[in-house]
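sorry to bug you again but im stuck and you know this stuff better than me. what follows is a protein written twice so to speak, once as letters and once as structure tokens for the fold. mainly i need to know what kind of three dimensional shape the backbone takes. anything you notice is useful, everything is just below:
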Amino acid sequence: MNFKIFILFVNLRSVFVNEIKWNRDRIAKVILSKDDIKNLKDQLRPEPKSKRFNSSAAAAPIKVGIIGAGISGLYSALILKSLGINFEILEANENHIGGRVFTYYFTDKNKKGKTCREYHDYAEMGPMRIPKHVTRLVGNQSWSLVNYLRNSNTVKNKPRLIKYNYADDNTLYYFNGKKTFSSNPQINDPLGFSESKNGGPGSGVPDHYANKPFWEWIEYAIKPFLDLMDSKPDLSYEFIQQYDNHSVRTSMSTFDGKELRKSMGLSDYTSPLNPKTNERIDKHYPQMAINWMETLDAGTGFYDRSLAETVIDAYEFSSGDWVTIDGGISRLVDAMNEALCLSKSNLQMGNKVVKIEKKKNKNLVVTTRTKSLIGSIKTNTYTYDHVISTIPLGLLQTVDTQGLNFDLKKEWLCEC
């Protein structure tokens, strides 16, 4: 078997994207077939020194280095542990694991006898919700990550899934000194943006826009893309590419709702009309109307970003099935920590990776820098059979990987 060097680039977002694209409902040993496990171990074993097959050499124990103790690093470690493969995690942070996952607790999260209010007195500074269709993480199957942790004997504080409330009818809109609930149908301009409530023509949003809910106007411009993604996903990509040079603002000021749906092969609808001129108004929105939609929909500057990005975001968040971890996402990290039994033997904190190189004996040597108590910098080296990098690609660019002799495609991947 030819030895292959690989660095696996993983991040939490890619886990979600892969799930959406390929629906790979697999995790750890319990969901791999015996052949899968054998093939994975064979791929990870170093090449025997002798050209002739040597069973003892092929069965030699291996050690895998994992760069980063974020969710992806911990997830990778769980898979390796379930396969009986030795691992070691190198984490740059001196006192935090979980990467971008960080729950800020206003009261002690470990406080005994805490009330329900105290238990939920926290704010998510990083990831805060998980799509329910990501079965490898939150599915009902025994091998999903949360259930895997709940069934682990070493995890004392079992993570529990709860529904994530993305919106609520009792939240408030407060604009122009006026207050209304989000459940308000927004008919007849309850927040006072219209021209008739601000001194006449040119002083506000044209009445025929402001007197209808703002989200109806947004749907004329955005919903055709979402409908196409549902009905013809391959074709939707082509249309999104065609509009990739548009921001949301430029698209809204130039689009034609009926023509857009017609070009996509979608069903027609009855256009809203200007009551004074009887002209269609589901196209070429004026800037005052676009500013009004942006204000109520998101915030200043939001509509200056890419239309394609906005459409994809809207599609991702169109599902109402979201879940989160009761008590904060950090409790998921705590449970993974307990399941892995992390200690100084397999977790090196405060080690910033600065270099990865391949030696003649096929091993990979990872160089790190640590800061001592007096502030001096110390260089450390760790030797592994394989390395899994879970740090963001932008951060990987700061690591010297010239000694790995990446081909051009891998170099491009690092620069994404």
Remarks:
- The longest strand covers residues 364-371.
- The mean pLDDT is 85.
